[in-house]
Amino acid sequence: MAHFSELRVYQLAEELANQLWVIVVKWDYFAKDTVGKQIIRSADSIGANIAEGNGRYNYKDNQRFIKIARGSLYETRHWLRLAYNRKLLSEEEINQIKPLIEELSPKLNAYLNSMKNK
To answer: What's the pLDDT at 58?
Structure first.
């Protein structure tokens, strides 16, 4: 089994979380304290759960953590929608983040399916 940091799905999750950090850190206190903390936690959780599942060396456990990572991705999408609707994210920032999410989502599903076949 590949080390988590070598997995493309993990690399995408890490890139998404880091891009969001750069954006959110510039928000005012109220925005950071409400939506900002939530979006960072959910985005960080995607990669953290991929890493934790990879470290379990048990396919059933790994599947469970990939499902949690997928849930965190959906939660991140929710917070992104709210942040955009509340004018915290610009169109340019959304266009920067969107390709990562569009690639990450099917990769998470493919990674989960690869665990089912083992």
So the answer is: 86
